[in-house]
């Protein structure tokens, strides 16, 4: 009995001293295993009398139950402690800055197009699109460009066959819009998209570029309406202090035709290398819609009038962002494109 009591006290002390579930499991095996001290004590029963054996067996069973209960209680305590320690060590501080995702960004030409579209939608225009592979009818004839016009020269246009070509301007979309809506008034559309011309690529030229052309047709549309519209565009794209200058020009599908300059946003009109010392930068061509264009589309030029303009989006991007070579817009250099990342 003294040995049993000594075994009980020793086992309980070791269980209480355990600091981990692994150490506790080792104690369980040590005391309750087949080769443990409890089983060794049981071997002593053969040396006891018939009267002593039941009492001794009961005492051994009580010790085993005491050990099992103490181990289970200690296990609950140790598991809770280990979980708390793990949570403490693996805790994530959600107030810390996370890893910044590597997001893509809009191409500068897309940014320019969206800004222009948003501007004109706010003025009541609709956005119209058309095919890039276009018919000669809409690209040239309906735009008042007859068969013998220099713009039809093979050096300027990518022809697919005699009647099909890659459009040289988005004026073709305007011609389609006029035809589809005639004689409905008013017409207010902008037509963004890619155009193609046979040209040698250099710092300021490309065989493929983007245009946004605008068309307004209605009653009593005047050149002053065009001027006011273009002033708003210039100020919105290049700064509120910008002024525009209109110079006479010639386009086959407008009469009168004008070239439009905007005051240089670098020197504010004082003269600098960007504007070649003039204080002005040419940004687009425009004019009043030619009566022949209206007639061919099914409108009466005596009862309605309109204006049209065409903006080269590459030119706007070069001027607005100070880009010195148009080829940067097409070479897909990630370092260059990242400078227009709106998420940074």
TrEMBL record:
Chain sites annotated for binding Mg(2+): 255
Top EC class, one word: ligase
Gene behind the chain: pheS
Domain Aminoacyl-transfer RNA synthetases class-II family profile residue range list: 112-319
Name recorded for this polypeptide: Phenylalanine--tRNA ligase alpha subunit
Species assigned in the record: Breznakia pachnodae
Cofactor: binding comment: Binds 2 magnesium ions per tetramer.
Subcellular location: Cytoplasm
UniProt-listed SUPFAM superfamilies: Class II aaRS and biotin synthetases, tRNA-binding arm
A Pfam family per the record: tRNA-synt_2d
PROSITE patterns documented for this protein: AA_TRNA_LIGASE_II
